[in-house]
Amino acid sequence: PRLSAEPEQSDVVHDLLAHLAGQMIEMHKQKQAEVKDFLGWLADYTGRPIDGWALKTNLRRYYQHDWAEMQRILKRNQRKLPKVDLDVDAYRNEPAQKIRAAWETSMETLRPLLARIAATDRLIDLIVYRLYGLTEEKVAVVERSASRARQVRRTFRSVSHLSKIREESMPAGKLLTGYRRFREKFETDREMFVRLAEEGQQPKVLWIGCSDSRVIPEQITGAEPGQLFVMRNIANVVPPFGTGDTAVGAVIEYAILHLHVPHVVICGHTQCGGIKALEGHIDMVREPHIARWVELARPAHTQVEASGIPAEARYLETIKANVLLQRENLRTYDCVREAIRAGQLTLHGWLYDLHSGDLLAYDDESGEWGALTLPVDDQ
User: Does the CA dihedral 267-270-271-276 come out positive or negative?
Assistant: First the structure.
């Protein structure tokens, strides 16, 4: 039977899931605390921070491995530990014995905790299966496609919205599957995310780009969390200072005055709908906000139209001209001009090609657009 068929019954199930989710959060906190304690002790005892170890990913997941794997990790690093004379192969090597004793103590704490996490995880899976009336055949399909029994629990993680999610909701399903993958990555990179949460962000780039769903700055650049401070809107527009818009201005001021980013990138893209709209008529009554917004790119359209460029090339050239227009609009902000004068800020104009995946950059010296030049180490 489908557990969500009756509202009262559904509420009870959701309360149970919320309770179990709370238990999971608490158990994961306990696990992370124990892992942090052991790794902190190991780094202090050996004199080498965990980030400096070879096989550090496996080391951070030591609770998933047996002592043989720990020996392999220690052996790879034993000549790089300044505070101890570690020799994994030696008989009765004191540092090796001490590390093993600490590892076994930690594992004695973690093993029952991990077993409870796995059992609770499975229980949540089973409740969700019943909540959505999945047959045994459908359960088998779901678990095969997930490669792990925890697929459904990850997918339906947001307990408060369980009743709104249906099997036929494929777009939402894709997002939730993506969220499941993110949660797995989060567990792998938890140390980085915790560090960002505790130490704050220090991005090097303010990225001002278009809202277009095909142009994702983190995907294009491969940026990790904490590396880009992002502002996206239709046609990557920067309203000139004093025009009444506060959202973009607030982002600019915060990025420069508080985050002290050394670079600002204005990134346009081919097939930009905001620029295309300038070629036609926008209904001021039906779409007043769109109409007013894209007018901020009108000077680029007017410039290209008056230049004598053939009609078939005007669309792309207007997209490029708009990037440069918005870059100049940046200079109308006092904080931008002051940072440039102090040599603390550089402005960039980029263009992303949807068809090729290429990034083009505008070169101020030549006045030309060309392929973005990568440092040798990054190629």
Answer: positive
- Greatest distance between any 2 Cα atoms in the chain: 84
What's the CA gap between 117 and 25, in Å, rounded? 9
**Which of 203, 207, 208, 245 is CA-nearest to residue 226?**
203
pTM comes to: 0.58
pLDDT tens, position by position, 2-29: 444 444 455 566 677 778 888 888 898 9
Convert the pLDDT of each residue in 111-166 to its tens digit. 999 999 989 888 877 777 666 666 666 656 555 555 444 444 444 444 434 444 44
Between the CA of residue 140 and those of 2, 45, 130, 249, what are the distances in Å? 17, 47, 13, 52
Q: Under a CB-based contact definition with an 8 Å cutoff, are residues 123 and 20 in contact? A: yes
- Are 218 and 229 in contact by the 8 Å Cβ rule? The answer is no
| Residues annotated catalytic, as ranges | 210, 212, 214, 269, 272
Element holding 368 (H helix, E strand): strand 368-371
Nearest one of 63, 42, 62 to 52, comparing CA atoms: 42
Alpha helices, DSSP H only, in the chain?
7-46, 56-60, 67-77, 94-131, 136-146, 151-155, 170-188, 190-199, 217-221, 247-253, 273-276, 288-294, 298-305, 311-330, 334-341
Question: Cβ-count burial of 341 within 10 angstroms (0-12 exposed, 13-18 middle, 19+ buried)?
Answer: exposed
The CATH T-level fold of domain 201-378 is: Beta-carbonic Anhydrase; Chain A (3.40.1050)
Question: According to CATH, where is 3.40.1050.10 located in the chain?
Answer: 201-378
Q: Give the number of other Cβ atoms within 10 Å of residue 86's Cβ.
A: 21
